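Pipeline run #58 for the internal structure catalog. This entry was flagged by the ingest filter as a single-chain record with no existing model, so it goes straight to prediction. Upstream metadata was stripped on purpose; only the residue string is passed forward. Reviewer on rotation: M.T. Logging verbosity set to normal.
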Amino acid sequence: MPGALQQNTFLWLLLPLTAGIVCGDACHDAFSRPVLLWMAAGCLLVAAVCRVYRWRHGGRLTACTFLFCLGCMETVAQWAESDYPFTGDESLYKVRIVEHGEEKPRSLLYHSVLLEECRAGSLQPAARRSLFLLYFPKDSLASTLRRGDELLIHARLSAPQRNGNPDEFDYVRFLRRRGGSGTAYVPAGHWQVVGHDSLRTLRQVASDCRERVASMYRRLGFGGDELAVLSALTVGDKDDLSDDIVETYSVSGASHVLALSGLHIGFLYALLLFLLRPLWARWHRLKPALVLFTVVCLWAFAFVTGLSSSVVRSVTMFSLLALTSLQGGRPLTLHTLSTTAFLMLLFRPLWLFDVGFQLSFLAVLSIVLFQPLLYALWPVKQRFLRYVWGLATLSVAAQIGTAPLVLLYFSRFSTHFLLTNLWVVPMVSLVLYSAVVMLLLAPFPALQQLAAACVERMVSWQNAGLRLIESFPYASIDGVWMDLWDVLLLYVFFAFLYRCWVRGTGRNVCLMLAALLLFVSYHGYCVWRDSPRPGLNFYNVRHSPAVHCTTQSRVSWLVTTDSVPRLDGLRRSLAPHWNRLHLAPPQVLADGDSCAFFSVHDGLFSYGGKRVCILHDGRWRGKRAGASLLSVDYLYVCRGYKGTFEELSSLFAVKCVVLDASMTPFYRKRMKTECLKLNVPYYDLAEKGYLFVPL
């Protein structure tokens, strides 16, 4: 490894800490208090052995062992904070709403902290103030709830459940890593406001400040996509972003500018350096005070934007950059980056699994390593071309670091990312600087209104430019599938590429080519292994009942229950699985439709020698079979059928009943009881998850 990597103390401390965090997250259920105590005792034993034998590298080994155990124990402790003993029964609880409500398609979501719970017939303080997501029906009464309201609710608190669909987003880990214990649905009439807590945490005060800034934008006349993009760029408020503008930014490769993070903090940091550097260049003794002022300004901006996790991470990194500039030399180095990551993970280990954290640090790491090498390829003398070349190499370097993760999480690669960054980075910098001026002009309404018109025009130009890039041919490659090992092998190849670039020895070239061959071989094996198989697929996705008929090719069909099916949830949940199988978007067949292989009539169809009947209404009730019963391999019972299974036994000869997750618990329980009574096998998607029937 290059000397800079070998001498980076915090990098070698970061590696065992990260390994311990990963181990603690993967095995948090297996680590009890005695196990953690044994780990601590083992760490002390390693230190004692190294001291007795005076091993040369004993100090580093002891430190690595200690940090591994520390990362593991802190992670397990954070998982334990979100544990809650669920009973499965409805009960009475007292909760406090801690954040403003979020409007969902069918409900209102409020983040709430559990204050009291019913034990022994009376409300008693909760053993732990767990965080729960409470869903209320959309009505005028629920919409009046505000942060700080204390409620009595009668509901069933439930642990987050996995649907069991292949390659589906792990919502359980997502919620638990952020401190959430579970969810609950609170029906109308099952809650009552009993008080209000006016005390606010620092984060809540910051959130109110962010909302006031967003309200100021509305008063200044901003609206539509311009308001949504400006709020996202400056205060991190993405609630008003439309699906169209999000897709435009995603396809063009500019999604990173909508997530308030390192790019925006970097622009603000650069502006402060530009304004203050002439002062400390003339009066050197002012430099510490001016650097401290820079750090205060960065944290003030973080406060105005609501102290979101991504902004706090970025401000922490740039604060350390500002402080290290007091020592002279390059402000942004691998040592600074690893120090920042180490301190942040030491404070909050589960930040390691935040997508924003990963993308931010890998982008900066790639810029630190690759950008100087790329910039040196073409020595440019003309000032403007040097700026363009610097911006281009910066974009390419950042893309090297983030592309594997973007493919892993979003299955999309924006091919025009270089053109996008050449347009959007200067525009975003102008918008941010102009927005700062606009906010500072608040005491002068006329001037502020003029500045607002300029900002609105620049945001409009920015959006128009990205829409133009989106319209270019092959603007993005979608449906790309990569698993975790693909990503790790690709980063190993990038590491050896950097090593080979710095020290182009024959050994390093061979290692780089071997890493590339290993990645290509593994990815090719995965493509062969994950080729689609012909069969029937039943998914555990509520409100989207459908039977997915697959072939050995990329062609497939979705047989649905409605003439106008609601399949957004199904596509969103199953997109990763379909990408892994390299399936084309499935053709949707409703009742009465047909394709070259089969047709659907009254929910009945035959595919691959298997007959399936989708039961979602009362169309088969009251009918009688002729001389013989109608043979059905799979009777797919969905929400909407109100009859009993005994009524169907006189019409169908059923080999297996599939119960959809959309059914109510009452009907699902009744169906299972009747199936057991008639000795008919059944499969409950809500309990067992995804079902695949090979053909």
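catalog note: The first strand starts at residue 91 and ends at 97.
catalog note: The two ends are 53 Å apart (CA to CA).
status: ready for reviewer M.T.
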